[in-house]
Every structure is written in C-alpha cells, then in structure tokens.
Amino acid sequence: MTTIPTTQKAWVEECRGTPSKSLRLREDWPVPSTLQPGEVLVKVQACGLNPAGYKIMGAFPDFVLGRPIPSGMDLLGVIADANDSQYAKGDLVYGFLSLALCKSTTQGALCEYVRIPTTHIVPRPLVISPLSAAGLGMVVLTAYTALVELAHLEAGQSVFVYGGSSGVGIAAIQIAKARGARVVASASGKNEAFVRGVGADEFIDYTLQPIHEYLTSHPPNTPFDVIFEAIGIADSSLYTNSPAYLKPNGVFVSNGPFPSSASVAEIWKFAKTILAISTPRWLGGTPRRWTYVNNIYSQAKLEATQVYVAQGKLNPPIDTAFNFKEAIAGYERLMTKRATGKVVVKVDPAT
Questions:
Q1: Which GO terms describe its molecular function (predicted)?
Q2: Is the predicted pLDDT of residue 260 greater than 70, yes or no?
C-alpha cells in the first residue's frame, strides 16, 4: 500500500515576475492533509501549461493570489484519496483548477499532490493519451465557452478561427467540427498542414496579408456565422471590418483583448479596440455583435467536453513535453508564441 507523504515537490510562485524570476522549485511543500467533503486528493501525473499562467504571474500582485502558491491549472492524475466520493483510489482523472479555486485553496497543478473538489475533475477516457489529457483544461473550456455558450454554434454553420495553431484555436477547430460546423482557420503558412490536420476545412496564411484585408477582398461565398479571435489580440481591425464577412446576425467572440506588451504602440492599439467595441451603432459603431470569453469554468462544461474526448473528437496535440525540473523552460516555450499544440510538464516521469 502506497503511503501518502507529508511533503512534496512543487513549483511555487513566490513573487510577481517572469517565470524565471517568480518560480522556485520547493521540495518541502506540504501535501494537503485534510480533505473537505466533496474533495479528493489527486497524485498529479502531468500539468498542462497555458499562456494565462505566465501572464498572471507577471501581472497580479502577490496579495491578489496569496503567494506563495503552486503554479498551474490543468492537471492529469490518479486518485490518491477518494474521501468517500464517487471515485475510487487509483481512478484516472483530469481536471482544471480555476483561478478562483487556486486563490481560495492555495493550490496549483504544478506539484505532486493536489486537493481538488470532485466538481473540477472527470474520468479520463482511455482513447486519449495521458499527456494530451493533461491539456484538456483551460484551452478546451475557453473554446467551448466561446463557440457553444456565447456563439451557440450549430451544425451547418461556418466559423472563422483566428489563431488556429494556438492551444485555444486547436480546441476551437475540433469542437466546431464535432458540432458539425465548417471551419476556416488562420495561422502562419508553415503551420498550414498542422492546422488542416486538426480539422480545418480551409486555411489562411496571416503572414501574407492582414486577415481583415484578405477577408474583405476574398469574402466567403456565405458570410461567417461566427468569428472567434482565439489569441486575445489588441487590434480592432478584424472586428471593425467584419460586416464584409460576418453575417448581420453573426457574433464576433474574442479571447481578450490583451496588449502583448506594455509598449505605447500596444497600449494604443488596446485603447482603440476598447473604443471600437464600445461605440454604439447609432454613433457609427460596427454593426455586428461583439462579446468576449469570461468565466470559463463550470462542471457542466467540463462534463460536456469530456463527451467529445470520449468520442475521439477532441484530442489536443502536444508541442513539447518537459520533465518536472524543466517547468520554467516549458513556460519559456509558451512565451516564444511558437508552440503548436500543448506544452506539458511531466510531474511523474513515468507518464
């Protein structure tokens, strides 16, 4: 019988800053010893990293998150203590620690053991590899919220995914195809085969021409029902020009917007975007509905996306899998913005 230790290894955020400044590998971090009703203890096998991780690390003051706190939100693991729940010791699960849950419990996924409510995990279907399952948290819930909850995407409709090679973009393509929609996606030309391989019906190389210019001069035969801007760009052009390629009753969903840096140029683009989306139509605003992704977590959404996983329709590819001691390198890979697929850290080297 495996004994649960009292301390564990954990990558802990100790201060605001870049991952190399903020993160410290602790080998004496306490393993949760008390479980509340409805909670289980999960032995973490792998943690999926997200751009939101390093953005939060660099933006939020220590008191907001209650640092020091382990990093990471997406997890794959095995039940170590079922705590009289519907699970049994040894069950394979994956899940998501929302930011609110991380703050309230001072938990993170980039460690060996996590105390987590059963509402934040689901059984792992065996049709998906362990490492891919580790990336089924934030990006999948974000894409599902955008396309299903906000845009109400239906079979037979068409969607344009801006940022098709990103983690959220890949999940959006696969969810849209699972719902019977036609998908056009953009990325750099070198990633065309990859983006088509995850399900896109058509591809646009954004490096050849600004996307809004291309779509205006080459509009689809039938305007899109949905445009999903998957990477949170602080640029209003795709939205303000959308009447040329988005149906009058269509919806533009943004995963942002966020300035990519604190430069004057980026802040100015961000301000222009806020002005563009907030100007009412009667004052000359864009006559298309704009909304953004927020509040991505719910148990219902976690369970709904698990159905797509079990059907083999949702299977995020892996860009790079790093060993546990290389977690900072994993974040730095994300920060290059060149990852195609999920960046995962193997907490258990046997994963």
A1: oxidoreductase activity
A2: no
